[in-house]
Amino acid sequence: MLGHQGYLKILVSGAYASGKTTFVKTVSETILTTEVPVTSPGEQKVKEYTTVAFDYGKVTVDGMPVYLFGTPGQTRLQFMWRVLSYGMHGYIFLVDGSNMMEVYRAKPLYLYMKSLGNYPHIIAVNKQDVKGAVPPRQVAQILSVSPEIVYPLVARDKIVALGVLKQLVNLIVTTKPSIKTDH
């Protein structure tokens, strides 16, 4: 699966404000972000900064160099998802689990990621530390996926976030390639 590269390229994708940048910053040893202040009044109510190109992080997982590319969450920048997906080995799809509306908002974005090819991936339901958070099993039902690929996440918690990343690395290493490369 890894070919001659000796590294993994993993996308961290999801809806606006789902925690992609926080996740990349939490698990990475080296970080580069393209965050800028939010200018849209509606989006300013949600958060102060947003990613405009991608976040980049590098971390070593079980001796394997892993390069993380966090996609922008704003739909006007969704074209970057396809660009960043080139050469990826798999992806983590973050869902804001703080409320049901956010889970439903993530569904079309998840379907878009799946349309890029049959890549190994997991779904991480972030913000599990929020009172009344949507449980991963319910997110699995809404997204029509096996609960086996859905994990709870608190993106600010390094141990939890690294655990989620390790689950994906293990899945990638043990999955036979069936990746579409002509997107």
Residue-averaged pLDDT, rounded? 84
Percent of residues in beta strands: 25-35%
CATH superfamily: P-loop containing nucleotide triphosphate hydrolases
Gyration radius, to the nearest Å? 15 Å
Number of domains: 1
Uncertain segments:
178-183
Number of helices: 6
The protein's oligomeric status is single chain
- Portion of residues in helices? 25-40%
SSE sequence, one letter per element? EHEEHEEEHEHEHEH
Question: How is the biggest beta sheet arranged?
Answer: 7 strands, mixed
The total beta strand count reads: 9
**What is the C-level CATH assignment?**
Alpha Beta
CATH fold label: Rossmann fold
Distance between the termini: 19 Å
Please list the strands of the largest sheet in the order they lie side by side: 2-5-6-1-7-8-9
Principal-axes geometry comes out as globular
Account of the 3D structure:
There is one protein chain. This protein has helices at residues 20-27, 41-44, 79-85, 100-115, 136-143, 158-174; strands spanning 8-14, 30-32, 35-37, 49-51, 55-61, 64-70, 90-96, 121-126, 150-152. With 183 residues, the protein is α/β, with parallel strands linked by helices. Strands 2-5-6-1-7-8-9 form a 7-stranded mixed β-sheet, sandwiched between helices. Strand 8, helix 5 and strand 9 form a beta-alpha-beta unit. It is globular, with a radius of gyration of 15 Å. 42% of the residues are buried. Residues 178-183 have low confidence and may be disordered. This is GTP-binding protein. Keywords: GTP-binding, Nucleotide-binding. GO terms for molecular function: GTP binding; GTPase activity.
